[in-house]
Specification:
oxidoreductase activity, about 15% strand, TIM Barrel, binds NADP nicotinamide-adenine-dinucleotide phosphate, two-stranded antiparallel ribbon, 11 strands, oxidoreductase, 10 helices, alpha/beta, 7-stranded parallel sheet
Length: about 300
């Protein structure tokens, strides 16, 4: 499989399997994380040839960016990497609010640059809309930052179809990040077609449906993190999902491949998806996900797999 792609119409050349680093320093998102394991995850990604790392301020309130920055400095590989980060979350008296104002985003980019120990960010996403700042204006702030060389490409995440169009009113949007996997297909209705039509790269988050698509869970699995509150892991929906994953497992076995690799390879067959950013808690998981590059799905196989989850 061709391993490198340009993200949409940007100048960013990424390996098709990146690394989603929300478990690197993301102590506010997952229990029992350890910073040293987080740094090992980044080192493992680099050793495995990954050149596309996805982080955000909210992953550990800057800790993920700091740990990535430390490893990138230690390895001296800044120029070989595409680093994506996101902002919009603001700490106010111990709670988190969203802010897309020009002043706030500009100051957040400066703070991300410091934490990442760099003088440019390859791809900056507005993480969530704040519900008040006009979205074309928000994209305009990022355009300003791009013109100044602080960021190299303009991203947005978690917008609905209407918001996506508003954000892209001046055609500035280059990369969109939204939830999408074999299990969560809503983006197929409007978001993916819009991105495809406008040359915007779509980066799917939760590509493994938070581990569900690895096939490792059973109806008796007990979740201790945010999965215990997610609809995909609840009651009848969970049982239904497990049955579909069993069918995926059978399809993978027929191809002598692992379930997770087939689920990730399927995403790479979709239009507008140049790269994926599976997450990992342990270096072995990260290494395992990179094996996705060893398999290629035919159109018939991709359609069959798609049908299992329709
Ligand atoms: P994901 O990629 O769907 O699932 C990752 C989780 O699955 C891992 O943390 C691990 O959890 C398990 N896993 C991964 N590889 C495995 C393997 N080979 N074998 C067994 N288990 C494996 O979910 P995600 O990491 O939350 O999402 C991916 C990335 O998208 C994030 O890291 C983040 O960068 C980004 N993201 C962005 C947004 C946004 O709002 N823009 C939202 C969410 C995520 P366990 O070991 O605990 O099961």
């Amino acid at each position: 499989m061709d391993q490198t792609r340009t993200l949409g119409e940007t100048k960013l050349q990424v390996k098709r399997i990146g690394f989603g680093a929300n478990a690197v320093g993301g102590h506010n998102l997952f229990p029992n994380l350890n910073d040293e394991t987080g740094k090992d995850l980044v080192r493992t990604a680099l050793d495995g040839g990954v050149n596309f790392i996805d982080t955000a301020f909210i992953y550990g309130l800057g800790r993920s960016e700091e740990l990535i920055g430390e490893v990138v400095q230690e390895r001296g590989v800044r120029n070989e990497l595409i680093i994506a980060t996101k902002g919009a979350h603001k700490e106010v008296n111990g709670s988190i609010e969203l802010d897309n104002s020009r002043d706030f985003l500009r100051s957040e980019v400066e703070k991300s640059l410091k934490r990442l120990k760099t003088d440019y960010i390859d791809l900056y996403y507005v993480h969530f809309p704040d519900g008040k700042t006009p979205l074309a204006e928000v994209a305009g702030t990022l355009k300003e930052l791009k013109d100044e060389g602080k960021i190299k490409a303009i991203g947005a995440s978690n917008l609905n179809y209407q918001q996506l169009q508003e954000y892209n009113a001046d055609g500035y949007l280059e990369v969109f990040q939204g939830e999408y996997s074999l299990i969560q297909r809503d983006a197929e209705k409007e978001l993916l077609p819009y991105c495809e039509k406008h040359g915007i790269s779509f980066i799917p988050y939760f590509p493994l449906a938070s581990g569900l698509l690895t096939g490792k869970f059973t109806k008796d699995t007990v979740f201790e993190d945010s999965r215990k509150d997610k609809p995909q892991f609840q009651g009848e929906t969970f049982i239904h999902n497990l049955k579909k994953v069993d069918k995926l497992k059978a399809a993978a076995e027929e191809k002598q491949a692992e379930t997770a690799h087939v689920a990730l390879a399927w995403l790479l067959t979709r239009p507008a998806i140049d790269a994926i950013i599976p997450g990992a808690k342990r270096p072995e998981q990260l290494k395992d996900n990179l094996k996705t590059l060893d398999i290629e799905l035919t159109e018939d196989e991709a359609n069959f797999i798609s049908g299992i989850f329709k």
